Amino acid sequence: MGARKKEMAEKLKEQRKSAYYAKLNNCPTSPRKMRLVADLIKGKEVSLALNILKFSKKEAAGRMEKLLTSAIDNYEKKSGARADEGTLFVKTVTVDSAFILKRLRTAPQGRAHRVRKRSNHVTLVVDTKQTTEE
Length: 134
What we know:
The chain is α+β, with helices and mostly antiparallel strands. It has a single domain, classed as CATH 3.90.470.10. It has 5 helices and 3 strands; from the N terminus they run αβαααββα. It has helices at residues 3-18, 31-41, 46-54, 60-79, 129-133, and strands at residues 20-27, 88-106, 112-128. It has a 3-stranded antiparallel β-sheet with strand order 1-3-2, sandwiched between helices.
């Protein structure tokens, strides 16, 4: 590993130690559908985001709600502070594509169509408003 790459990796590792986040890997929902839900809560206060996800009709909202509660618990464990003070908000939500299951669907006249069953990785970062204003 080169020196510059190693320095960058160490820098990112230090940033992750101070960040409050949760990851969901290999979620069997297409990234496009998950991004629709992620855009609903991006930048919102945590209690408002939980309410949005709770009453959303989308199937991906249930998984995102579970991920958000996990990120809140991580914040409470790392910082020792309570999340209900109203200073905690959803900083970023990134949805990346994961593996794709490739299946075949029968078609007329002996043909076959390929069906791609997509999945994704979601990373949700929460932060306090006080640290971003400074």
